[in-house]
Write a structure and sequence with these properties.
Length: 466
Amino acid sequence: MKIEHLVWLRNDLRWEDNPALYHASQQGPIAVLLTVTEAQWQEHNESNAKTGLRFGLMQTLCKSLAELGIPVHFITEDKFSSLPTAIHNFCVQHQIQHLWFNEELPINEQKRDQAVHSLLTQNNIACHIEDSDLIVANPVLSQQQTPFKVFTPYFKRWLALLSQQDPTPLPAPLAQSTPLSDVALPAHLNVSYREDLWPADQTIARQRLWQFCHHKERHYNEDRDYPAQPATSTLSPYLALGALGPRQCLEAIHYTCSQEDKSWQDSIWLKELAWRDFYRQLMVHFPALSKGFPFKTETNALIWRHNQAEIDAWQQGQTGFPIVDAAMRQLNQTGWMHNRLRMITASFFCKLMFADWRHGEAYFMNKLIDGEFAANNGGWQWSASTGCDAAPYFRVFNPTRQSETYDKHGDFIRRFVPELARLDNKSIHNPTTQQRQECQYPMPVLDYKPARLAAIAAFDALKGLK
């Protein structure tokens, strides 16, 4: 069987609802190419947990494709810069005439793909670039054809475009031969992750999607801010590596809402997926975001504090603020953090410690199993009031009030800060000095009120720079 079509999969590790894989399979027999660039992933500060899940998903993908008679090949290089030549040589060696891949939006990935496209087309190998893994893949622009800088008007336009799309997931490619032998992954770093929490299996990811939409989506808006409750989807690691596709998520939302006789446009979880699209498209329209610059240029003038002892305490979950410490320990132990807690810990870091948001962003990326550069950057800039955020800069979360509101009985704190478990439901949010000594729990690393006022004063001083 002569194979002329090669499908290059990256952060789209699935065989269903995959545009490049499906459309290539309609043209004739295909093979799949997976590329391993561990040094590049490390340079991008991706976590060991994410790398471990990526390799696991690659392995299950290989098995599923082998059952369809689709051969899988690997190319291992240190960096993206080596891939154009390596892929060209592979195509020549295997007489490949067409390379298919789904577009990726981060700047380094764009440069990599442009280099591959240029080299291959120069040598008469056609490149077919399919839509990126966004819910709305086309640019979402204003009536003036300019990118939105605030989410709310973006979301309105996003919904309008989405209503014109076909939400039907693309099917998996058909079997093209008898099953093949499994292909072993190339040698790679032995990294572990919480496989008990996120099994490396696309089928399980899809089951969890439907379970969430059937049983939790209707209560998502009311329950999603309470970290002790299992109310969120926890699907973000699968979305980050493309084990779930955008149309699969839409299909589940459409079906669930139709069963409940409500409009799918009103789904709050759908709105969260829109935020993911928003941040990724911002990276395209404003390349400086990929280079460590703030969206609000006047905030370049901020002079951030750098207190290493406070930063160490924050990273280790030893700040003396129980909800912050519980959240950071959840991140360190599982590679994941509840979204409300991401806002609390980031606000604490940027507004109260007044530490440079870029350091917090890097720490999260180095730990998160679901780390996506655009979403992580967007979330941190939102918290630091340096990003495209309509909310006022003087929004500073009070960690104790947040704890009392969203972990009222201290259940989440008790889970991750067990030394405080015996305290009553009121004291656990802000133990007394004596209780801290008895529980061997640290005193607060800062005083909330003066820290808040100092942050507001620093932002006030920027008003003349806009």
